[in-house]
């Protein structure tokens, strides 16, 4: 079919021919081009060797099937463009003494990155058995996508990598995360044109609106248009030059184009374009830093259009290879069964002239060895790529000084989140260059506005006069807000991966947007734990608030606590979940999480005012244990309990306490033990989780033979899943969110899901064998109370005052450091 517009022609999108570029200077001499092209050939030879070879690495003998790996795995399509860009930037690192990190965005682009690490010597330094000789090269080839070796992404085993690319879409946001508060760093970022079709990548182009040229470094994106994904053309490769240019002008960038396939002219064009971009970046930074006035430049970016699988044979058996989707993965997959194709592969590999670029022993020849930078100036050895090397602990104030004082357990009603915000405010104030708070336009809504007194919201966009009235905007802020959870999460990941600290706060129901991002980060950390030279980084801390049980104004769409299920699926070595029941526990947990390393920590705490239960001293003890009996609300001291009432989460704890109070008032002979869980993974067996309790410890809390009514913040099945091995697990009856909701009052929502005080109390009566008919009258009374409370909410649009202002009704007295119940 003809193109939809005369403007879109084959000529305007072809990746072939002599270079066409925005910048026309020619900085390379003929000798420079000869050397850089030889280095490029060495790189591509290594890339192809990784895909195919397990023996005969220098092709000293004719290629045979015995030289090939039994399974051919990996991707070829983006390797040439990535290696091409890396090589040309090496010249600029040396010329201008630059600090540069390479971020590989295209999926399965590891051969390009690994080849550079090997040629620069970094790989042999990190892995001494991968020597720069024939035997080392053989091992280097064999390990790629091979059992016991390394994957086809830029995995944690890859020197200089912070971005695996296992899932597409995050290269730009990760890169920006690395350059915030890193004024000398340039993150050179390859963006695959398939990756460029993802939502996260599309929003991340806006990151320039948050980049301060005084205090931050710069990201130089290279959009690699090679035309095809696995089996389809890519969108941005099939629009006209003008449309593509306008797209990036609209995003606020200055695009520069390098297009073609002729190597001599492409070397010259890429060298001049990259140098022009580096000088432009330096110009903007100098202008801002000399004047002390921040502004938002139209930062440079590059569109590199080259053939898919560049330098492969154009056709094999009359079918397109180079420049087509067949070059995406293993370009010639049938070399075991087709002798002619095996010969095509051998001729292709020999076309890179390995005998010219490697000496007889297999080492890179001296004149090429001199081309890349040395030491930590090598992109493969940049310390930012192993951010734990640069990490410094936070300067933390003593969280105990922010304690909610004079707590009357179950009576004091105070602002849990607004108080914790003061703690975060002072952490920000003490760490103005290595700690940031991230979130999608919700910091104020989440009752964390106190933070703005230490560090306002970063904003490099336009300022209006009305922004002075509560806008909290600043060029040099500490809070990063953009209504894209993907971008905020990507920024924070890049920030902590490069050695800093952060906290992301988000509404609980919409954190699912970044499920897969967190999944990938968990996998990254777990693999890093197995790589000895990887130094631990700060934990990724996620604070979930605006929780499911307090969404009476937003309704069903805002009611989903299922992120905890996602996290619980991850390795117990790298994830932690905390549900602090009150303000002092929240302070203790937050302090612990911000000090930790190599975890994904999830804290769930509602932002509204809540009943408080523990003094700071008791909160520290409770959080240290992770769960425990709350003696002050129990009356089973010295007796076997008839019932265990357990809770996990702030609102479920309130309702469980209210249920306990009802039972004790209406059935005073009952002996009830009250248990609260703050560290969710304490429920798992110690066999399966490092935080897990032994069965003996577990039964000392929950018993093995008494009914347990467990009120849980999230979906009930998660608790059953965590405790299925436990003694007495059949006595555990979990109540939680059952996917029932609407524009409900808090009590009505709880009733829908049977987590309210009346449902819990009735459930308890049903589970205690000794009550039987004896408890029937009480059960009927509880049912009537529930109906009346619900009817009043329907009538008045608000829960009854006795629900809203409920307090623990029994008097207390001091016993040691704990509040202990003595009776009605």
From TrEMBL:
Keyword set, alphabetical order: Lyase, Thiamine pyrophosphate
GO molecular function, one term: aldehyde-lyase activity
Ranges where the Xylulose 5-phosphate/Fructose 6-phosphate phosphoketolase N-terminal domain occurs: 29-389
Requisite cofactors: thiamine diphosphate
UniProt domain Xylulose 5-phosphate/Fructose 6-phosphate phosphoketolase C-terminal: residue ranges: 607-808
Highest taxon of the lineage: Eukaryota
UniProt record, GO biological process: carbohydrate metabolic process
InterPro entries referenced in this protein's UniProt entry, alphabetically: Phosphoketolase, THDP-binding, Transketo_C/PFOR_II, Xul5P/Fru6P_PKetolase, Xul5P/Fru6P_PKetolase_C, Xul5P/Fru6P_PKetolase_CS, Xul5P/Fru6P_PKetolase_N, Xul5P/Fru6P_PKetolase_ThDP_BS
Family statement drawn from the similarity comment of this UniProt entry: Belongs to the XFP family.
NCBIfam families the record matches: PRK05261.1-2 (NF003617), PRK05261.1-4 (NF003619)
The protein's name in its UniProt record: Phosphoketolase 1
Species of origin: Hyphodiscus hymeniophilus
Species classification: Eukaryota, Fungi, Dikarya, Ascomycota, Pezizomycotina
